[in-house]
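HOLO CASE FILE
Compound: adenosine-5'-diphosphate
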Amino acid sequence: MSEIIKLPTIIVKDAALLPGMIVNFTIIQKRVARACEEAIKGDGLVFVASQKEPAEKVTKDTLYEIGALSFIRQINKLPDKSFQVMLESRKRARIVSVDEDGGFYADVEPLETDESAIDRVEKEAMLRYIRELYIELSSLKSGMGKNVIKSLNESAELGATVDMTLVNTPLPYEVKLSVLQLTDLRDRYDRAVQILSDEIQVARVKDDLKKKVKEKVTKSQRDYYLREEMNSIRRELGEDPLSEEQELRNELDKLNAGPEVKEKIEKEINRLVTLRDGGSEASVERSYIETLLEMPWDNASEDRNDIIKAKEILDRDHYGLEKVKERILEFLAVRTLTGKGGGPIICLIGPPGTGKTSIARSIADALNKQYVRVSLGGVRDEAEIRGHRRTYVGAMPGNIANGLRQAGVKNPLMLLDEIDKVSSDYKGDTSSALLEVLDSEQNSKFRDHYIGIPIDLSEVLFVATANSAGDIPRPLYDRMEIIEVSSYTSNEKFHIGKDYLLDKQFEKNGLTRKQLSVTDGALRKIIESYTREAGVRELERKIGEICRKAAREILEDNPGKITVTSKNLKDYLGKEKYRKESAVKTDKTGIARGLAWTPVGGDTLQIEVNIMPGKGEVELTGQMGDVMKESAMAGLSYIRSVASKYKISPDFFEKNDIHIHIPEGAVPKDGPSAGITMATAVLSAITKIPVSGKIAMTGEITLRGRVLPVGGLKEKILAAKNVGIYRVLVPYENRPDIEEISEEIRDGMEIVYVSSMNEVTKEALVQ
Ligand code: ADP
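Model generated. Tokens follow.
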């Protein structure tokens, strides 16, 4: 143990003085100033102790054991009475004891490094290695003095060299403090090697990063290939905060879009970079950028304008529908000749399951277009069409922009399904938003609130579907080319089932014709007894059900081939659900049978009229729209005008109430077409002349008893035929429509054309 000396002591916080270190202090604490003054009175030596943690009373335990025996090189009194001191740390010293006596003193034991413990050659190797480390580090890191290298080379003492390398390396004070505490030379050397090696590693990685940033500049010069390469290197190096931005920029480079769009996305990416680590805001921004990058912008697919091929595809996918196919082919021909991408919009109107969606799909196929379906059923909020503004939490693009994104091209066929089912409520006007979508004048710059950049919809081929024309908002209706798809007859359903649906369901369920066959009889029975619909959706479902049951049977029992006939159909589909309904054909007074068109197909409806003593009031019950009321009034007017002919007393209408009722069930969408039926029922009720039970009728009535034409004849005739009514009164002016109806439907039907109520009553009333 060497001698112990008592020295004035300076206590420092957050600092450690390694031997060889020269530091400048500004001293304000009186106590410290006194210590310094004491020191210069003597030999200028002070002890610098590092404090572990602030303590009220300084004891040996609150200080690190090893401190620096230092020499005061200079001391300057500053005008504000503080001191500036220049200290040189000379060697380590261990605190033995402290005492506070006016100033602050410590008894310390100066520590000498015992160099002789290490063999000469080994020491030389250690010296060289530590020098090399320092030199390498100084080449990687700026701010490390080159003149130090000279001193290092000259120094032969390992202890001093180790300290010197660390003194001249920018390091956190904790690191230096930890080295200061190491009195064993080997420990100190090992620690220094570790510190310097780590620093070299860090400096290298930093250098690498710097290079990458430099490469990023190249990227901004749109050097796509370089960036790709860099990105893959990044990925190999593990996640790197730059890589995401990089990827977005790469995507942006590849994006096929105009300069405005690209600039906007560039801006957003820059914004994202500033938001990094910004939590939710950054993630909102990121998904916005991703959405923008996924939009097709200038991406387009090549259309096939081959009408022959289009016809082939339409025929391949659909049975019958001749007129519909014809209209579509005409439409496509015009489109090809005019060269207009978008053009007018087709709207397919018809009951559910009649193939509207699947026709649209075939059109896309025929034109080699991408197909996307946008469902409008139940859309009430304008934002569903036009998107939410981005300030909303959870904002999303509207379903038009989304559809386009799904399609991946700017010129897909977009199916607007159930356009008659949009409704508008307090959240803005959905139909005017749709109008903007469909209007070729405006839609080249469609604004989605979320996307924020105008989207070009002018090359999208829109096809809409609806069940009922009456429910389509008028301005939309006017903009579309309507193609009606009507109900199928049993026979048509049979052919669709046999030639299309069976194959489709077989394939879907992994069956072949060798494993399962469904006989014609079974198919007809499904149509008659298990389904009641205008289209074939239910039929397809039933066939699917048979296929699934058969598939299971094949796997479980391995019966060879399964044949489903009308006899064993029950085993697959359960009990029959419908019986062929037939109308009660007895003649009745006050009841007339009308025919109605509804969005889901045709139907028959019975109108009942009661007369009772009263004050001449007319009451209408059941589900009657305003239009029906109007035609009931027109019918009454007519009856009054012919009252004398039927010997109705002149005061009859003052003394009786008339109650007209339409039973539940068939609610005609085309109200006025029940006009002649209502008038007939009322007349029959008043005159007590029965109406023939074998007749059904449809037609609008005027005040003077003229019969006006109506729509939906195919559905109506089918409905009559289905319930076994074969004689139908139809407005004379509808003759051309009747002639257009297929032979199959008209077969067995007696159509009587009527042009006035006189003719109606002659046919209908049993006189
Ligand atoms: P909608 O859109 O009119 O409600 P879908 O297009 O969904 O009806 O048709 C229901 C199913 O019936 C589909 O599988 C469709 O392919 C089939 N289908 C409808 N009409 C025909 C037809 N004329 N020929 C062949 N399959 C048809």
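CASE NOTES: DSSP finds 28 helices and 22 strands in the chain. The radius of gyration is 48 Å.
CLOSED: yes
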